[in-house]
Write a structure and sequence with these properties.
Strand content of chain B: over 45%
Low-confidence stretches of chain A: 172-201, 242-260, 285-313, 351-359, 438-446, 463-501, 525-535, 565-602, 644-686, 697-713, 744-892
Oligomer: heterodimer
Number of helices of chain B: 1
Structural class of chain B: mainly beta
Helix content of chain B: under 10%
Shape of chain A: elongated
Strand content of chain A: under 5%
Order of helices and strands of chain B: HEEEEEEEEEEEEEEEEEEEEEEEEEEEE
CATH architecture of chain B: 7 Propeller
Shape of chain B: globular
Number of strands of chain B: 28
Distance between the termini of chain A: 109 Å
Structural class of chain A: mainly alpha
């Protein structure tokens, strides 16, 4: 009960606003809450209106800043606190505070990308303080010094200079500046400069030097080369004059002189990259434009300290003098000490070890063993060991432990002889290598005279010197460098010999001699000796005449030789029946090439060549010309350059089985056929194979862009048409269409032989039943392999397919057609490939190709080729049909649409 | 000299307006107007006889290298560093079509006789034929037998002739489907066809103009004296095919006699490289353009 006494003193009872007791004793009802411990109010209890949260859920309440503020904070926020009015705001604190608040408020009202009041705080409006106002009314002008208006003229001049320097500096930077610094420059600098150019020390100038490069902080690329700083600045200001934009300068600093000369006045778009082609080729080369690339390495120590200082001098701020002695000095290191016995030449330890060997005393000269075989073996082994090193001997000794033939290695029969032989061989080798070494090193380094150089370069030296030219160089058997090199520069020796072998002036030995001399000179190139002693006796005109004769004779020889070689090359396929086909094509190419070179050397420009070229049908149409290739299959494009044949050379060997049948007819054909075509046929084949294997079939659709769009929709119609049409009619129909589209059928101009068999083939198409029944079993075989080919199931298609397959099986019966038809197919593929020559599937596929095993390769190729061809048939079939129906239907559609349009218009 | 009097050696007008190098100046079909194009990415239409700028066409993203007007003066095409061929409407100044496809800068464009196709010659070693009749923007044909940049293209009624840096002048005959390649051994800068159609004048980069017989490929004459080593400078023949005109890199324009290859006249036309020389189709009037940014009209 004592508990009750104490509270009475302290009045511990908790009451609410109206003085009601909050807490009661445990026996008097606990605590009171709400309205008399109810949820109601004075007016009674009103239940909240129920809102179903099912349809309209309570949205997230937007939180307000006031939710989190205390009363006083709120009051402060509303600006109800005490502060100095702006009028008496000497130090501008109030103004700043107010503006900050204002900014905060603004911020609160319209949230910006950058949260918080930071940007506004940065740029606070500066109200003039009362002090400044007073000063201004007293006649003080902004920028003047307060203490002394009439300062000494010297100081003022200095100041002006400094200001000008700064402002100039500032201007250059301004243009390149980002937005922030620009505004800052404006606030800090512009009012002053606009009001008064005069400027005093009393007002601090905040020189902004924003970081514009991509170097690390504090890194100065011009630290040791201040000359270039000036250079760069001038460059920047120059570029600024012509309106360089910031990205460019960025790029410049990144990539150095790459983006060098650009035509004045024209930048390029923001989205475009500055390229090589943007360089102004027409601008004269300006040497002032050359500048040093800013090297990222902080190296480049300037050796001359004085230079650095003097060049810095004009950069010294007014009021500062250049230090007479600089604390800074470049650390210098002495060159490393070279020991006296150091030879500045690297000794190779490996192959030249023979040099040390001779120190070993020579074993006794021992007669060779009686056994001749053993002797041979030992001799051979000795040379081998001497060449490959002692290691090999050890190895083989281990290996042939049990082999009694190699007893001589283990000290058995013939060991002495072996030792002797080995020593001899090594001796020989060391001599050789010494010689080699001498020849290699000493003459080249020391005796590189004009003569040797001349002979190296294939120049024709004066008469005598050729023989003398460095005997050491030409004597060494292993050192044929000069002669080889000169060969490469002039004519190959063989051709000279060949020319010499033919003696057009046999009856007159003197003339023949002169002719040979002429030939030599002709092919030697370089300077010619115009006055030969021997010719002196002849008159000028006679000499000229003879010279003409020689020229003609030389050319004749040349031609004859070229012709012969070509002949030889074209005959070669017969020799290499299976494997050599592709190689020979390379051979012809090369030989022809040398022929070309020869022609060049004998000055036959301009040189005319003719090729087949197929204008696009549409092109002919646009030019109002009949298509010369109307209805002819696309021909093989010729090899683009020599590289083509080179690249595919190694792969072609695998191609043998495919080509072998078609070769025999070619033997006859190849001789008469123009050379270009021949090589094309041979060269392109492997590419087609790759194409067939690896390229996807989608390109078939691209084959004829004109029909491509209508193709898909027409597929069903085609099938229907295919089934309804009589086979025979279909055959003719297809043929004619194919002709019109320039797809299939008769061979082109350059392959006259091809015409016949193809026509035969076409005829046979007319009666497909016959050929079909004939070849039925084969077809079944094939159809099992092919899955896709049978979906269409039109007979003439099969028969066609057969015709193209059959040559492989019936080569004897129908050689020509077989080769040509397959050739045609290939050509078609090739041409397609050529049309899409941008896709690099070719190179990809070839690399793939190499990776795979040869066996699987072959199989795969076969199957894929078949698939491919079947697919091709397929698509071709479609297309031919399409074009007919599509042409028709599109016409119809067009008419319809026109009609509709008209109706609409009406 | 009577020969020189019939040459257009008197300056009639200077057409100023281009900023930077003018890369080509071409007369239209009847010679009443001229189109010029240049490094400033604009094409300008002039009346060269009065020296008035009529219109400026802007759309190219980079320098414009060549321009050619259709025979009916309704359309023209242009090409340049932005790898596209633009097909323009003359009067509205709008681009009707842009032909994209060249992998490099396009050096020259020409319409055919009926203005149904444009042939462009590009840095990507190809000639491309674009169709103006249909709405297709795909090339009708790509001729890519050249081994190097194709610098210049000329069309006849049945042939396409291209000159390339690989030293060849290749004639593509549509009637017989043949390509005739005349190897000159020197990079071909500009080709121009004689008015009788029998000869091709090829400006080579060894400072030589070569006149070729078109049927045989025979070298008929060689014209020397000017400098043409590193810039694309044009050459052309006068209307009577009596004279050969060639621009030089030192700002001169040379006149040769066609037959005996004598330099008849040297004209100090510009201060800098003469990029283009174009002859009036009927009169004795000539346009020269230069890197110095001017186009000059020359008359008798």
């Amino acid at each position: 009960m004592g508990m009750l006494l104490i509270p009475r003193v302290l009045n511990p009872q908790v009451t609410d606003e109206e003085g009601r007791r909050r807490f009661h004793g445990a026996f008097t009802g606990g605590y009171s809450a709400g309205y008399y411990n109810t949820v109601g109010s004075k007016e009674g209890w009103a239940p909240q209106s129920f809102t179903s949260s099912r349809k309209n859920r309570a949205g997230a309440r937007k939180q307000n800043i006031s939710d989190f503020l205390d009363e006083d904070e709120k009051a402060e926020l509303e600006g109800q606190s005490l502060s100095a009015s702006s009028q008496f705001d000497t130090f501008g604190f109030t103004a700043a505070e107010q503006s900050r608040k204002q900014a905060e408020k603004d911020q609160y009202e319209r949230p910006s990308a950058i949260p918080g009041p930071v940007p506004d705080e940065l740029i606070s409006p500066v109200s003039e303080s009362i002090g400044v106002k007073l000063l201004l009314t007293m006649g003080w002008r902004r920028g003047h010094s307060i203490k002394d208006v009439r300062a000494s003229s010297d100081a003022r001049r200095e100041a002006r200079k400094a200001f000008l320097a700064f402002s100039a500096d500032e201007n250059t930077k301004e243009s390149l500046d980002s937005l922030v610094s620009e505004t800052e420059v404006e606030t800090s600098l512009d009012p002053q400069s606009s009001e008064d150019i005069k400027f005093s020390e009393s007002t601090p100038v905040y020189v902004l030097n924003p970081k514009q490069d991509l170097h690390g902080l504090g890194y100065d690329p011009f630290k040791h080369a201040p000359e270039f700083r000036e250079k760069k600045r001038s460059r920047l200001s120059a570029s600024k004059e012509v309106g360089f934009r910031k990205p460019l300068s960025m790029k410049e600093s990144l990539f150095g002189p790459k983006s060098g000369k650009i035509a004045p006045g024209f930048g390029i778009g923001a989205l475009e990259e500055l390229d090589v082609e943007d360089e102004d080729v027409y601008a004269g080369y300006d040497f002032d434009q050359t500048y040093v690339i800013e090297d990222e390495q902080p190296g480049r120590p300037s050796n001359d300290n004085r230079l650095r200082l003097t060049s810095n001098e004009h950069n010294v701020l007014p009021g500062f003098g250049a230090a007479s002695n600089s604390d800074y000095s470049v650390e210098r290191f002495d060159p490393p000490n070279i020991s006296k016995d150091f030879v500045a030449r690297h000794k190779f330890s490996g192959p030249l070890e023979a040099e040390t060997k001779p120190a070993v005393s020579a074993p006794l000269d021992v007669p060779p063993p009686e056994d001749n075989n053993l002797k041979l073996l030992i001799d051979g082994f000795a040379t081998f060991v001497s060449r490959c090193g002692k290691l090999y001997e050890d190895l083989s000794r281990e290996k042939n432990q049990s082999n009694e033939l190699f007893d001589f290695l283990r000290g058995g029969n013939g060991h002495d002889y072996y030792a002797r032989r080995l020593w001899e061989e090594e001796q020989k080798r060391s001599d050789q290598s010494k010689l080699l070494f001498e020849v290699k090193v000493s003459p080249r380094v020391e005796k590189m005279t004009a003569e040797t150089r001349g002979s190296l370069l294939g120049e024709r030296p004066l008469q005598r010197s050729l023989k003398e030219a460095d005997p050491s160089a030409s004597s060494g058997g292993s050192f044929q460098f000069p002669t080889n090199l000169s060969d490469t520069f002039t004519k190959s020796a063989s051709s000279q010999e060949a020319a010499e072998a033919v003696k057009p002036f046999k009856d007159d030995p003197a003339k023949q001699e002169r002719f040979e001399q002429f030939l030599k000179e002709k092919y030697k190139g370089g300077l010619r000796t115009t006055d030969s002693n021997r010719v002196n006796s002849m008159s000028e005109s006679a000499r000229a005449q003879e010279r003409l004769d020689f020229e003609a004779a030389a050319e004749a020889i040349e031609k004859g030789k070229a012709y012969k070689e070509v002949r030889r090359a074209t005959e070669q396929p017969i020799d290499f029946l299976a494997g050599g086909l592709q190689f020979t094509s390379g051979g012809t190419e090369q030989i022809k090439d040398t022929g070309v070179v020869d022609m060049k050397s004998s000055k036959t420009y301009p040189k005319r060549e003719e090729f087949q070229w197929r204008p696009a049908p549409l092109l002919c149409k646009r030019f109002d010309l009949p298509d010369p290739f109307m209805g002819k299959p696309p021909s093989a494009p010729r090899a683009r350059n020599k590289m083509d044949s080179l690249i595919f050379l190694p792969d072609t060997v695998k191609d043998v089985h495919q080509v072998s049948e078609s070769q025999e007819p070619k033997k006859e054909a190849s001789i008469e056929e123009p050379e270009v075509d021949l090589e094309v046929e041979k060269v392109e084949r492997p590419v087609d194979l790759y194409k067939a294997i690896f390229s996807d079939d989608s390109e078939d659709d691209e084959e004829q862009p004109m029909n491509g769009k209508t193709q898909e929709g027409q597929e069903k119609k085609n099938e229907a048409a295919a089934t309804t049409l009589n086979r025979l009619i279909a055959g003719d129909f297809l043929e004619s269409l194919g002709k019109e589209l320039g797809f299939e059928v008769p061979a082109d101009v350059t392959y006259p032989e091809a015409n016949k068999p193809m026509e035969e083939g076409n005829k046979s198409k007319g009666k497909p039943e016959a050929s079909f029944s004939e070849n039925r079993p084969e077809l079944k075989e094939k159809s099992e392999e092919k899955t896709s080919s049978l979906t269409l199931g039109s007979e003439e298609e099969k028969s066609r397919k057969m015709r193209e397959k059959s040559p492989r099986k019936q080569s004897e019966r129908n050689d020509l057609s077989s080769s040509e038809s397959s050739g045609d197919e290939r050509r078609r593929k090739r041409s397609k490939k050529d049309r899409h020559r941008n896709n690099d599937s070719e190179s990809d596929s070839s690399s793939d190709y190499h990776k795979r095993g040869s066996r699987s390769r072959r199989k795969r190729r076969e199957s894929s080729r078949e698939k491919r061809s079947s697919h091709k048939k397929h698509s071709k079939h479609h297309k031919t049909k399409h074009s007919s129906s599509s042409r028709y239907s599109t016409d119809e559609e067009r008419k319809d649409s026109k009609r509709e349009k008209r109706r609409r218009r009406d | 000299m009577s020969a020189t009097t019939e040459l257009p050696t008197k300056e009639a007008h200077v057409l100023k307006g281009h900023e930077g190098a003018v890369l080509a100046a071409r007369f239209n079909g009847d010679g009443n107007y001229a189109l010029t194009c240049g490094k400033d990415r604009t094409i300008r239409l002039w009346n060269p006889h009065r020296g008035i700028l009529i219109k400026t066409y802007k759309s190219h993203g980079r320098e414009v290298r060549d321009v050619h007007v259709t025979s009916d003066n309704a359309k023209f095409c242009s090409c340049g560093g932005d790898r596209q061929v633009y097909y323009w409407d003359v009067s509205t100044g709008r681009v009707i079509r842009k032909f994209r496809g060249h992998d490099g800068e396009v050096n020259a464009v020409k319409f055919n006789d009926t203005s149904s196709v444009v042939v462009s010659a590009g840095f990507d070693r190809s000639l491309r034929v674009w169709d103006c009749r249909s709405h297709s923007v795909e090339p009708v044909q790509i001729i890519d037998t050249f081994l190097d940049t194709v610098m210049s293209v000329v069309l006849t009624k049945t042939e396409i002739i291209g000159g390339s840096v690989d030293g060849t002048v290749r004639t593509f005959d549509m009637r017989i489907g043949r390509e005739m390649s005349d190897n000159l051994g020197q990079p071909v800068n500009c080709i121009s066809i004689s008015n009788d159609g029998n000869c091709v004048l090829a400006g080579c980069l060894d400072s030589t103009l070569r006149l070729l017989d078109r049927t045989t490929g025979e070298l008929l004459q060689v014209y020397k004296g000017h400098i043409s080593k590193s810039f694309k400078t044009d050459c052309c023949l006068t209307n009577s095919d009596a004279h050969v005109i060639g621009g030089s890199e030192d700002g001169l324009v040379f006149f040769w006699d066609l037959v005996d290859a004598k330099v008849l006249s040297k004209l100090r036309a510009h201060d800098l490289v003469v990029t283009s020389v174009s002859y009036h189709p009927k009169e004795d009037c000539m346009l020269t353009s230069s890197v110095d940014g001017t186009v000059r009209v020359w008359k008798k």
